[in-house]
């Protein structure tokens, strides 16, 4: 709780009249092969940014092996029937382009940016990677061995260990419960499995192509038709997975890292998807709680108490489920004190309605920051991606401001009561057991693991 | 080839404050920056880490905007803010809906005029900074590698060689007198530039700059220690223990030519040839072809943003089955090849296209990804403070696009020499027994 009197500033200039935010026109089309195309012009620099998304990611490949969609995306950029790896990389440089490929829980994607003058060759390469990846044996072997080192290395990162354990606690055996494959699982990857995932996921019916940048939308649409028109393929069958149970009762999971000089705290619970009617309310509640620099939690445990450098909270949307999480890396002797404040601020939001001026500040913050997506090509691309992948209404961007401003203190009180329950938060602490075990045990039944995931207690 | 031309207006107020404006009304958003020409390189001896700690103090309260108000006023206006400390500059910046422009100028002027902080604020931010150092360095695998490990090995002048994040004893020793003295010396309008980018007209911006900053008195010219290095005549090596990570690592740094010389332009393209992503020679040879390393890359950090000795560095994490010497030999093979054979004209053409593309990307996004026009702001600030020429943002590209094969080869021979480099080995404590050097 704040122990310091908050003083107010004097002589602040008032805000001038707000300027209208005009989101650029989007050109939407569906090619005859089923590929959805969304374009928006943005002429800030003579470049463009793009994403070719597929609506299937690691969760949809989990029945084969965890992380397989990610591995498929990684190897897909290392060779096609026409170009070897080195040729691909040099061709990208020749046209001034950057390209990466990857997969999250729910999507696989080829992401790219390049000079507008070379749009056609860049799209041509993207098409080739999406249709004609050849998965060369040597490249697959190399990437697999590389991945083995990476999965070992990530077990030394406290942030990774914390988020990994939280996901396991929240989602259990559901594919969302495993964020990264084990060494044994990577060692067992087979090239044929990658090719099977590639054939199944990388199809135009399963894809969305988003392009934002310095081009004429109608001409770019023609280019996209020319480049991607020949491609064919069906949407994969959905694989339903049983809904994970929301853990009840607060428990503490300590991941023991000997010699850690700080403790990574993360606490979380189930929340909602992006399409849920409460999304905006929970977003605003989060922003007040710990989602902004000016939020209650940051002011409390950083600016008042100096426990931590970067506390934050967030609502994380996955396609089937979502989760809320709050995190802070704190010094070892204030783990219990930090948790007490983390839950105090949660309980306060559930007990006392947010004062109207504070709510107005948070509404201004969310709507202002949202509008900044307009100012850069990749900012706009990311806003359009959210709308497209979550099948949100076409006017989502245009109506955002008014929907944020319509929320009331009662809405937030009800939202906090519904979603932010300190009695049912799952707590993960990554740190040195000898320094924090007693503090950890104060907050619930305690389980202790090592960095490899073996139970110690 | 389409060239980007950015409209820029600039002026200097009577108190010496430079003002640079880059209007663009595409979005109703304005980015405001204030850069002070002081970074961690020239912070006071015995006070390592002070420039950065001081940066935190600039958010703790000024004459008319007490603690917590600065952050609150920016966020509640719909904007984001931050600050950062680097070698030779410290910046403070906000991106806000343009209707908040005057409020932001008032806030920045208030803290340029008078910092108002107490012991409690200092203790609070000292604690916060220690957690920042723990989360980024002491509790992270390969934390601070190589940006904190390299300087004490590579350099001899304290300015370039000390711990920029700060020894905890030095952070503890800092008191309020240090804070006010540093503020008085370096945070004067004649050592700063104000930048306005986005939804503001040039004449309006200049008038507002005068209105809010014009009355702040100039200070005496700030004292600057000499950052130059004695000539390096031998390869330097150092060793650091890696507490958490499992892979042996090394970093190699070559001191690069003075900025804005032909050699400097050639070196920047050479850097692109060597470590421009997956097409770069070092990654290609060590990671993709010989498969010795898991990670190999780096570059010249913030090419336009430093004003003293700096390096091109390469960071390598390699597989434990390869020794440090074998890994270094593979790296040296790449360096020898470019020293002996230069690069082909086809490769040079590729590099120039990529360079131009990357430069545009820097202008739009830059290092502060979430801040519109952060990169443009950063370049305009550095070109103003170091070169007194913000228009360089539109012309500096020419020097890079004019580099020849001969110039690249000459730069490779002159600068990629063992006696001009330093190497830091970072060896896992657990695996060190297996490491046969």
- What ranges of chain B have pLDDT less than 50 throughout 5 or more consecutive residues? 432-437
Provide the CATH superfamily of the largest domain in chain A: Metalloenzyme, LuxS/M16 peptidase-like
Most extensive contact: A-B, 87 and 87 residues
Distance between the termini of chain A: 33 Å
H and E string of chain B = EEEHHEEHHHHHHEHEEHHEEHHHHHE
Percent of residues in helices of chain B: 40-55%
Helix content of chain A: 40-55%
The CATH class of the largest domain in chain A is identified as Alpha Beta
What profile does the largest beta sheet of chain B have? 6 strands, mixed
Mean pLDDT metric of chain A: 96
Number of strands of chain A: 12
What is the spatial order of strands in the main beta sheet of chain A? 1-2-6-3-5-4
Strand % of chain A is: 15-25%
Q: Measure the end-to-end span of chain B.
A: 50 Å
From the spread of the alpha carbons, the general shape of chain B counts as: globular
The main β sheet of chain A shows up as: 6 strands, mixed
CATH architecture of the largest domain in chain A: 2-Layer Sandwich
**In angstroms, what is the radius of gyration of chain B?**
23 Å
Q: Any low-confidence stretches of chain A, pLDDT <50, length ≥5? A: none
């Amino acid at each position: 709780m704040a122990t310091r009197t908050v003083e107010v500033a004097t002589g602040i200039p008032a805000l001038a009249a707000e300027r209208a935010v005009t989101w650029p026109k989007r050109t939407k089309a569906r090619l005859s092969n089923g590929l959805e195309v969304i374009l928006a012009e943005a002429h800030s620099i003579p470049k463009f940014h793009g994403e070719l998304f597929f609506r299937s990611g690691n969760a949809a490949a989990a029945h084969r092996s965890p992380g397989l969609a990610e591995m498929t995306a990684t190897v897909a950029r290392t060779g096609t029937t026409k170009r070897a790896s080195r040729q691909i990389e040099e061709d990208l440089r020749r046209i001034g382009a950057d390209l990466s490929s990857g997969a999250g829980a729910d999507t696989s994607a080829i992401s790219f940016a390049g000079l507008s003058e070379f749009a056609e060759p860049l799209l041509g390469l993207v098409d080739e990677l999406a249709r004609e990846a050849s998965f060369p044996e040597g490249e697959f072997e190399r990437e697999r061995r590389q991945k083995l080192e990476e999965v070992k290395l990530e077990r030394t990162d406290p942030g990774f260990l914390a988020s990994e354990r939280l996901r396991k606690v929240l989602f259990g055996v559901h594919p969302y419960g495993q964020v990264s494959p084990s060494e044994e699982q990577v060692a067992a990857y087979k090239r044929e499995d990658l090719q099977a995932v590639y054939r199944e996921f990388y199809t135009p019916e399963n894809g969305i192509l988003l392009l934002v940048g310095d081009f004429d939308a109608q001409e770019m649409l023609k280019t996209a038709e020319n480049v991607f028109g020949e491609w064919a393929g069906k949407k994969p069958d959905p694989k339903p997975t049983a809904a994970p149970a929301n853990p009840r009762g607060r428990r503490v999971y300590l991941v023991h890292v000997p010699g850690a000089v700080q403790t990574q705290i993360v606490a979380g619970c189930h929340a909602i998807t992006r399409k849920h009617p409460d999304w905006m309310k929970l977003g605003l509640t989060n922003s007040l709680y710990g989602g902004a620099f000016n939020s209650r939690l940051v002011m409390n445990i950083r600016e008042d108490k100096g426990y931590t450098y970067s506390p934050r909270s967030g609502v994380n949307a996955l396609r089937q489920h979502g989760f809320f999480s709050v995190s802070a890396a704190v010094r070892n002797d204030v783990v219990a004190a930090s948790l007490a404040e983390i839950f105090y601020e949660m309980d306060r939001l559930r007990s006392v309605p947010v004062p109207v001026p504070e709510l107005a500040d948070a509404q201004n913050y969310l709507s202002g920051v949202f509008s900044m997506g307009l100012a850069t090509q990749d900012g706009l691309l990311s806003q359009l991606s959210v709308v497209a992948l979550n099948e949100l209404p076409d006017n989502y961007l245009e109506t955002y401001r008014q929907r944020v401003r319509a929320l009331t203190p009662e809405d937030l009180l009800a939202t906090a009561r519904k979603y932010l329950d300190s009695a049912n938060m799952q707590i993960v602490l990554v740190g040195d057991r000898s320094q924090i075990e007693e503090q950890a045990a104060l907050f619930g039944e305690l389980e202790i693991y090592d960095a490899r995931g073996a139970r110690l207690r | 080839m389409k060239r980007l031309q950015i409209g820029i207006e600039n002026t200097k107020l009577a108190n010496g404050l430079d003002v640079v404006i880059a209007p663009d009304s595409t979005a109703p958003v304005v980015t405001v920056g204030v850069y002070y020409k002081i970074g961690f390189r020239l912070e006071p001896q015995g006070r390592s880490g002070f420039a950065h700690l001081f940066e935190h103090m600039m958010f703790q309260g000024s004459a008319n905007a007490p603690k917590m108000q600065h952050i609150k006023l920016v966020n509640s206006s719909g904007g984001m803010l931050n600050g950062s400390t680097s070698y030779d500059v410290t910046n403070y910046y906000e991106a806000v809906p343009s209707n908040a422009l005057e409020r932001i100028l008032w806030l920045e002027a208030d803290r340029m005029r008078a910092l108002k902080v107490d012991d409690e604020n200092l203790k609070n931010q000292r604690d916060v900074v220690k957690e920042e150092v723990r989360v980024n360095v002491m509790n992270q695998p390969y934390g601070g590698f190589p940006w904190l490990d390299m300087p004490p090995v590579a350099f001899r002048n304290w300015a370039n060689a000390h711990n920029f994040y700060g020894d905890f004893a030095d952070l503890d020793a800092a008191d309020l007198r240090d804070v006010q003295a540093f503020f008085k010396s370096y945070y004067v309008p004649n050592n700063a530039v104000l930048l306005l980018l986005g939804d503001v007209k040039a004449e309006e911006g200049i008038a507002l700059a005068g209105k809010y900053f014009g009355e702040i008195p100039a200070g005496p010219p700030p004292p600057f220690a000499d950052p130059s290095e004695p000539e390096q005549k031998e390869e330097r090596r150092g060793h650091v223990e890696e507490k958490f990570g499992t892979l042996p690592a090394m970093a190699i740094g070559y001191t690069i030519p003075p900025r804005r010389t032909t050699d400097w332009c050639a070196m920047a393209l050479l850097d692109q040839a060597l470590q421009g992503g997956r097409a770069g020679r070092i990654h290609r040879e060590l990671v993709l072809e010989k498969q010795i390393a898991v990670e190999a890359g780096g570059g010249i950090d913030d090419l336009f943003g430093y004003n003293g000795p700096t390096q091109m560095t390469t960071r390598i994490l390699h597989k434990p089955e390869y020794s440090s010497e074998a890994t270094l030999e593979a790296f040296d093979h790449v360096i020898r090849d470019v020293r002996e054979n230069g690069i082909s004209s086809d490769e040079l053409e590729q590099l120039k296209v990529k360079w131009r593309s990357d430069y545009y990307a820097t202008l739009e996004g830059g290092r502060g990804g979430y801040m519109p026009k952060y990169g443009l702001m950063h370049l305009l600030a550095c070109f103003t403070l170091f070169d007194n020429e913000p228009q360089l943002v539109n012309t500096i590209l020419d020097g890079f696009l004019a580099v020849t094969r001969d110039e690249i080869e000459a730069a490779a021979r002159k600068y990629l020499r063992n006696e001009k480099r330093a190497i830091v080995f970072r060896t896992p404590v657990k695996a060190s027994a297996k490491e046969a050097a």
